[in-house]
Amino acid sequence: MSSTNKRHTYYGGVTNDSSGTFQHPQRTTEQRRKHVTFGPYILGSTLGEGEFGKVKLGWPKSFPSSSNATLEFPKQVAVKLIKRDTISNDYKKEVKIYREINALKHLSHPNIVKLEEVLQNSRYIGIVLEYACGGEFYRYIQKRRRLKEINACRLFSQLISGVHYIHSKGLVHRDLKLENLLLDKNENLVITDFGFVNEFCSRNELMKTSCGSPCYAAPELVISAEPYEARKADIWSCGVILYAMLAGYLPWDDDPNNPEGSDIGRLYNYISLTPLKFPDYILPIPRDLLRRILVSDPKRRINLKQIKKHEWLKPHFSFLSITPDEWDKLQNTQSIFRLAKPTRRYGSRPQSSCSTSSIGSRSDKRDSLVIDSTLITFPAPPQESQNHIITRPASIASDQRLSPIRRSHRHNRSNSAASVALQAVVNADREYALNHEQSLSSAQNIRQITACNATSGFSPPSVINSGDVLIETSPIKRNTISGGNILINLEKETTTLTHISQVQQNNTNSSQNHQYNKPRTQNSLQSANNFYRTSSSPHTKPRPTSYHPGSYTAPSYNSNMPSMHEINEKTTSSASSQTLNQRETSPFDFTPYLALDTCITSCSSIESSPKLITHGQFSMAKPSVDLQSVSGDLIKYKADAEVVTRMYDERYKQKRKSLRYSGIFSDISCDTVTEESDDLKLSESPIQQHAERKSIENTNAENLSGKNMENRDNAIISAKKSVKVPSERSLNETESAKKRFSFLSLYSYNNSKSSLYSSMDSKRKPSPPSQRRPNKGDSYANSRSSSTKASNTSTSRKLPKDQSTPMIIQDGLPLGTKEVAPNARSSVMVSEVNKASVDNKAIQYPEQSTAKRVLGFFKRRSMRV
Ligand SMILES: Nc1ncnc2c1ncn2[C@@H]1O[C@H](COP(=O)(O)OP(=O)(O)OP(=O)(O)O)[C@@H](O)[C@H]1O
């Protein structure tokens, strides 16, 4: 195959010869010129298109020369190309981009897309990301109609782990949805699109951006004016994603009055009033988890800590118990994990093509989970293993550190002749690869493998295929070495090993943990399979799945981060030093700030706040343009052939060690940053609770259309009362963009504060009542004002039909909500909502009533008798 194809797509350079080994294509200068290039990358096909432009597949122009050329594939990357023109006049977009960059540079987790570098020339900014070649998660579900429980459980664990990591950095994603989840080549989840990370928008903007397609947005974002706990909003989104994985469609997708879900107000009204329904094939345990996540009241919504402990995720407790600190330490020692590919017994899966990856336009993707007749269905394996694959790196015993296969977790049928033979091949391959690796001696490639034997459930695979292991090297210049049969764990750093051992000690029995609860889970999964065989999804209705949330997050900071200096000290080997030095050339640390003057310079108190993004860490800082020239261009036209520069800051070298971790993270007091409250106890087993809930639901079902329905209406009305009107929230539009951003940062701080306090102490004294004045003829506003008292006194006045329809949002604004007093709006709204929520707690959540529970209990008992 010629190295140059018509679509400029990289096909791995695999030749058709029978040897099957990779050979460097002999490219002529002429052929080279045909490539579209950007900086050091050749650009290939379009992977997708986003708000800012196209995302292209890329691979390095120059292959690293090595004696083992046959093993080396150039690492593919995804280059997000942003036309400078498109952002130069759009401050919001610019901010979004820098937020994304600055967030990604601090995140290092196997389920979060990795930032390789950022390049720019006069026309484009190129964000070079790790290439997630498994395609879009959205399509993955689409192809399968829905995921098997075992697979959903694995992927959801990864999502939760990634989200927890993000939250631990004081960030919230705020745009979690299927479209922002990709898969790597091992079918592991990769969270992308951090454009909304920690971005605070005024309420006005929130409403505006929420109305695109709020299917994943938590209700409090729409029906409440309370500065919301953004982490809880992320959790809601995770719940919607989980529901979509298991059901194959989005929850609350069946409102006959709003079939397209285009009426946001009605949609949220429906969400609030309609109990979550499940198709038969979703089993009680995941149902229980979903019921706990998809709770309208964020205070009653389960938090990540509790999710991680939920019974359904038990098979992945080991993975979920890896703390963010541990991920960081692993990153600092350059040991990045990739999760190995889940193995299937039979039934082929369409291989995600790295070269012809999904090309989807946004509009395409917004079609939600449409199930069409061309979907391929796969036979469900009789019993899939728990192929979570990732294992605690620390649990690698010292005598096995150089092996990707843990002897203690051998294939459980390893006594068979076939297994013995197979093992011999594996051993030979391992040795072969080890030799190769040693000869490669590219010191920056510090690798760690986590592998698992899918057959045994939690052990590493007996055979490692080319697709099974991904090698991570330096974050800046990483090369994926594949193409051979085996990639071996090369932990050349003694410090790495030491550290890993420590991690292991901190998490004892990690390997044994893999076995916990297996029989039970398998039983349930087995019965799930039975369900799969007999059930089919009744829902096929499409639903837009994209939304753009706004508003703010309450970041928390981790003060336990080791300083870069410490790490450097610990890092003794040359390999490690090299990688660290390479890290230091990371483009975005300690960069000048785009518009944080107010935030940074004038508010010293803010700097000490855990809520504030302080100087030197995640921010919307514009990457420094103290640039290092590299040859590069986007050669389509000759005019484009301008110098591409790597965004690079010399100061970074000096500052990073002292600032990035020790200086920044340790500066910040963690005292006031709390995990989400643990007030929701998972005391009862999910099954118990499920049974109980079921009976309660049955008991209440009759009442739902009656008094309870009215009460819930009232609850909704009272919640809506608190919806801020746009003019309340709008900032002074005359402010310059720069100032405005600074203000937003401050505002976000303030809001986060109230948010945090409110979450810690929901009975905080309410602020004075809202001063807002509804417009004449504004039905929603009228209903709001008229129901203010009603909600406070918990009266059961039913909302008339026309009024029960929530605000219609146009241009992001609820209709007819225009005039309001701008004073102290956030606090007013917080208190209002708090009060309303306290007043209506019993109404909104009748299932919590003790009387009802007792009733349900006796009812069940009498039925049994
Ligand atoms: N790292 C990646 N690997 C593979 N494909 C990617 C990667 N990043 C993005 N894509 C593809 O490009 C598409 C658009 O990317 P992305 O969502 O990041 O762009 P965007 O401009 O941020 O979009 P938006 O903000 O509108 O959601 C994705 O849906 C995906 O198909």
TrEMBL record:
InterPro entries named among the record's database cross-references: Kinase-like_dom_sf, Prot_kinase_dom, Protein_kinase_ATP_BS, Ser/Thr_kinase_AS
Known catalytic reactions: L-threonyl-[protein] + ATP = O-phospho-L-threonyl-[protein] + ADP + H(+); L-seryl-[protein] + ATP = O-phospho-L-seryl-[protein] + ADP + H(+)
Keyword terms, alphabetized: ATP-binding, Kinase, Nucleotide-binding, Phosphoprotein, Serine/threonine-protein kinase, Transferase
Membrane among keywords: no
Annotated spans, Disordered: 1-33, 342-365, 505-524, 530-580, 680-713, 755-814
GO MF annotation: an example: ATP binding
Biased composition (Polar residues): 15-28, 530-539, 553-562, 570-580, 697-708
Enzyme Commission code(s) on record: 2.7.11.1
Protein kinase domain residues: 41-313
Bias (Low complexity) ranges: 352-361, 505-516, 781-797
Any one of the GO CC terms: cell cortex
Record: residues binding ATP: K80
GO biological process: intracellular signal transduction; peroxisome inheritance; vacuole inheritance
PANTHER family: MAP/MICROTUBULE AFFINITY-REGULATING KINASE, NON-SPECIFIC SERINE_THREONINE PROTEIN KINASE
Protein name as annotated: non-specific serine/threonine protein kinase
High-level lineage: Eukaryota, Fungi, Dikarya, Ascomycota, Saccharomycotina
